[in-house]
Amino acid sequence: MDLFGLYEIAAGERRMVILNSFSTQSRPGGYIHKTISVPGDKSISHRAVMFSALADGTSEINGFLASGDCLSTIECFRKLGIKIARDGEYVRVEGKGLNGFIAPADILDVGNSGTTLRLITGILAGQNFNTHLTGDTSIQRRPMERVFAPLRQMGAKFSNDLNQMPKTAPFTIFGSDLTGVAYTLPVASAQVKSAILLASLYAEGKTVIVEPQPTRDHTEIMLNNFGANIVKIGNRIISHPVKKLTAQNITIPSDISSAAFFLAAGLIIPNSELTVTNVGINPTRTGIIDAFRAMGARLIYSNERIEAGEPVADITVCSSELSPITLEGDIIPRMIDEIPVFAVTAACAKGRSVIKDAAELKYKESDRISVMSKELRKLGASILETDDGMIIDGRVTLRGTTLQSHGDHRVAMSLTVASAIAEGVSVIEDTDCVNISFPTFFDIWKKIF
Ligand code: S3P
């Protein structure tokens, strides 16, 4: 068997990926020298479909991320009576206005998608019908009280309101009349903020949200493009009622969270130069870029522009000698989904890196603090798991072994990056989960070497 490359073996429902080390002997001239593009932004794709469904008229979306999570959003809105046609990355949504939904005949199933669940709960709280919501086993573990609490203050009612019931999916939303609220978020969460903003479209009076730290603001940007009246003053986000939203044409940039795996690979694999084109660089999402730069990464933006109100650029990285850093405070929500691949990168920096203030990672598709620490330790990395992050001592030589994704897409992709610099062969089990956010991940991965 050719020991350089990547192999996928179908084994029942599981797939294993075997990656071999990329050593200087096997590739003397250097490794990655490529320009690639990655699919559309997941957060923006969800919102584009949702807001188009709420608008009057037909919206056209280009660059849509056709992944498991975003397809769950499309399915839910179809069940609410919205006509949605899709051809690859092109989506056409025939919006029926803020009050055009029909009561779904069926339970709405969000699959693995936390964003679908949190945001749709905000929309459905103010309807004049009841909705049942569920999702997969991972979704059924993810906390919902953070969404229920503010919406309840607005007048929303949920089947889980009784204390003894678990505050997770499945649950029923009893459509109710809503009023505006002033609410301080206890944790920085764009999903919770967005759920409240969406409920505010159905509320009487204004809604004010106070954010403890800035989180991704795609909802504010895109809803305003559709005709909402949302303003940000300091850490307060104020939504004034509007009568209607109007259909838009939207071009979605590539997802910085997907680009991050390749940027990390370009930085840590020797003799590499890699460009990812057309990446969304909204400052509420670029914590990972700031972290890489603070580590001494050779990284540049080119071709900077604005598309659909969102800043976009091509990003080029070259292999770099990385220094350790401490991640804490406001940067954490700005790179919350990139911390698993940051941990891999930190394991390649000489010295101690520390991740603090990141307890939210426990509530993602898996407990990412525990899972990343455990799996990277299997490769030989020196990582201590803490209550709100990790302490990583680099740079230890990693050695290939059998790893587990724990059904978490970002863990599977982060471990793929780690395996590329490990000596020998690694097997990553249960890699189908990459379809949640990045179905073409392994196709692109194979092409860069
Ligand atoms: C998202 C917000 C983040 C992120 C998730 C997508 C969004 O979650 O982890 O993948 O689209 O609003 P939180 O806002 O709950 O941290």
Structure notes:
- A hairpin with a 2-residue loop joins β5 and β6.
- This protein is an alpha/beta fold.
- α1 runs parallel beside α6 (218-225), α4 (145-153) packs parallel to α5 (190-200) and α9 (339-347) runs parallel beside α11 (409-420).
- It folds into two domains: 2-40 and 253-447, Enolpyruvate transferase domain (UDP-n-acetylglucosamine1-carboxyvinyl-transferase, Chain); 98-251, Enolpyruvate transferase domain (UDP-n-acetylglucosamine1-carboxyvinyl-transferase, Chain).
- The chain has twelve helices and 26 strands.
- The chain has helices at residues 42-54, 68-79, 114-124, 145-153, 190-200, 218-225, 256-268, 287-294, 339-347, 368-378, 409-420, 441-447, and strands at 6-11, 14-19, 33-36, 56-62, 83-87, 90-96, 108-109, 130-134, 157-158, 171-174, 178-179, 182-184, 203-204, 207-210, 229-233, 236-240, 249-251, 273-280, 298-307, 310-318, 326-327, 351-355, 382-386, 389-394, 402-404, 426-429.
- It is globular, with a radius of gyration of 22 Å.
- 28% of the residues lie in helices and 28% in strands.
- It binds shikimate-3-phosphate.
- Shikimate-3-phosphate (S3P) is lined by residues 43, 115, 189-191, 194, 215-216, 336-337, 360.
